[in-house]
Amino acid sequence: MASLSEIAPASAITAPQAAPQAAAEAPRPKLDDVMLSMDVVDTLRHQESLVTRELDEDQREAELIDRLRTIYHNQGIEVPDRILEEGVKALKESRFLYTPPAPSLGTRLAGLWVHRGRIGTVAAALVGLVGAAWIAHAALVDWPRAREHKLQRIEISETLPKGLEAARADVKAQSRDPAADRQADQLVADGSAALGHGDAATAKQAIADLGRLRDQLRQTYQLLIVTRPGVPSGVFRIPGRNPNARNYYLIVEAIGPDNRPIPMAIKSEEDGSTKTVTQWGVRVGQDVYDAVRRDKMEDGIIHNRKVGDKQRGRLDVDYAMRVQSGAITQWQ
Asked: Has this prediction a pTM greater than 0.70?
């Protein structure tokens, strides 16, 4: 067991090692001192004119510190000189001064994250506007257009083919005329060919023409010479291209079962126009014209007024007099 005399030298060896360690550890500034230094720097920064005037001259630093001491004293705050000196030094060294980082992808992403709430609100509003615009465009343009295309497809594939068949059936039910049947078949063929090319307008025209053909077959009337006062029963015309010739016409009207004139679509051979009229001139030979004229001259009455009969189911008039092709709608 070691004696006290033996332990003492060891203590003498270890004791000097503690002094350097204590000297190496400098006392850390207190939090209050740091806060005061920051406040001093802040005061200096807000007193920018004073700083600019005083700190440009190092020899007057003591006067600046004195003024800072007066500022704090007026506020009821006693700040040690070392704190004031530390604050001036910190301002010179730009301590406690925030320096923003240089622009980069990271800073941009950080900025987006910081403002994510506002950006999210704007983005949501934009998405809402885009969505509303899309819905409006779809409702006002796309959907009506799609519906129209659908209706057109149905019209071409179903509606118009059925319309052609129905119109042809109506003509067949009325017709007793082979010429009418041939005309109806041709109209159906033309309409069907048009549908094969997607041409709905031509098919509709074919259906309308079949309807007019049906109506023509249904008509029943007598073609009679007009004998009204002030209206001629016959006229002759001198054609412009042959001044030495004469064309003879009987003025006629179609009288239906109700004893009323029926308007008819008549094409004039003089100008090629087609007009719907109740009286028109039917071209005849001079012999027929003269025979009617003599009949009327005997007693002022035309005893044989019938030019022909139009029977139901037939296209044309069965003429009782010899007529020629051609007609006029004006003679005065």
From this structure: no
